[in-house]
Automatic annotation (TrEMBL):
Alphabetical list of InterPro entries matching this protein: ClpP/crotonase-like_dom_sf, Enoyl-CoA_hydra/iso
Catalytic activity: (3Z)-decenoyl-CoA = (2E)-decenoyl-CoA; (3Z)-dodecenoyl-CoA = (2E)-dodecenoyl-CoA; (3Z)-octenoyl-CoA = (2E)-octenoyl-CoA; (2E)-tetradecenoyl-CoA = (3Z)-tetradecenoyl-CoA
SUPFAM superfamilies: ClpP/crotonase
Subunit structure: Homotrimer.
GO terms, biological process: fatty acid beta-oxidation
Lineage start: Eukaryota, Metazoa, Ecdysozoa, Arthropoda, Hexapoda
The protein, known as: Enoyl-CoA delta isomerase 1, mitochondrial
Length: 280
């Protein structure tokens, strides 16, 4: 039997996410809680939320609009069952022209800079697998809640014959430290939910989206009495080192990406990996 309290709690979690806010893209759904001002942003690019130029651009525009429209917080999640994001869309990196590869990489950099540095409090509600770029999205938020114990998360780039760029690596170092990051990245480890919780890569593991929303509410509640400017500046200082590297080295980072990704053996590896995914 549902108690009155359970009913009230359930209603307060589920009902208020009613006001839609157009992201301007069919790939990103945004609902703003009209009482709290918290936005829930759901990626919805079938089949696996592969991060292509279009989805990355749509996310970037969404983050901008939420800041401009004075949202009070953001939950980044997915509307695709069992998938948070499969990471960068490999088809964008396979056989791409230098122009398209550059545009793709620059859009990824801009999206990350915006997400990582937003003054809004951010929660990743990880309701599916989150390899590589999917893990980067989650790690760039301030708090990570995974729903269900069957999913994996991590930077598995070396398994594809790639390496995670320095800013991906630094983002992980800032969460689980250099020792665990080195171990995880050199082996391309995908952590189970339990392992991720133990190592601190996620903050909570819950059984349902309802619980995850309640955890997010609790996280946002921490800042109720904290002036936004003080909170934002503090976040800036904590994140400055990781962020500044990319801000100062964008061109160099793009060159490293372009030069490495176009190497014949790297392209061959990507082609084989894509084929292996399609054969499954
Ligand atoms: C040495 C040189 C280095 C250069 C270094 C410079 C910079 C670094 C460059 C890049 C960093 C890379 C970051 C990345 O994010 S790479 C992406 C890594 N992602 C993965 O490895 C995940 C792969 N996918 C999966 O494991 C699974 O798909 C899944 C997410 C667990 C979901 O499994 P499920 O069974 O539900 O789905 P399918 O596997 O059947 O997939 C459905 C469909 O989607 C296609 N697909 C899956 N993932 C991707 C992807 N990342 N990109 C493009 N397409 C993807 C898959 O092929 C299927 O396609 P189909 O046509 O068969 O429907």
């Amino acid at each position: 039997m549902t108690t009155v309290l359970q009913h009230v709690v359930r209603r307060s979690i589920l009902r208020p996410f009613a006001k839609s806010f157009s992201s301007g893209s069919p790939l990103v759904d945004v609902q703003v809680n009209d009482k709290t001002g918290v936005a829930i942003v759901k990626m919805g690019r079938a089949p696996v939320n592969g991060l292509n130029t279009e989805l990355l651009g749509a996310l970037n525009d969404t983050f901008d609009s939420l800041e401009k429209n004075k949202a009070t917080g953001m939950i980044l999640s997915s509307s695709i069952p069992n998938i948070y994001s499969a990471g960068l869309d490999i088809s964008e990196m396979y056989n791409g022209t230098p122009e398209n590869l550059t545009k793709f990489w620059n859009t990824l950099q801009s999206m990350w800079i915006n997400l990582y540095s937003t003054p809004l409090p951010t929660v990743a509600l990880i309701n599916g697998n989150a390899p590589a770029g999917g893990c980067l999205l989650a790690m760039s938020c301030e708090y990570r809640v995974m729903v269900g114990s069957k999913f994996v998360i991590g930077l598995n780039e070396t398994q594809l014959g790639l390496f995670a760029p320095k800013w991906f690596q630094d983002t992980m170092v800032s969460i689980i430290g250099p020792r665990q990051t080195e171990l995880a990245l050199t082996s391309g480890k995908l952590f189970s939910a339990q392992e991720a919780l133990k190592i601190g890569l996620i903050d909570e593991l819950v059984a349902s989206e309802e619980e995850a929303l309640a955890s997010s509410d609790k996280f946002f509640g921490l800042f109720k009495r904290i002036p936004g400017y003080a909170r934002g500046q503090t976040k800036n200082f904590v994140r400055a080192e990781v962020l500044d590297w990319l801000l100062k080295n964008r061109e160099h980072d793009t060159k490293v990406f372009l030069n490495s990704i176009q190497l014949p053996h790297v392209q061959k590896g990507l082609g084989l990996y894509l084929q292996s995914l399609k054969k499954k």
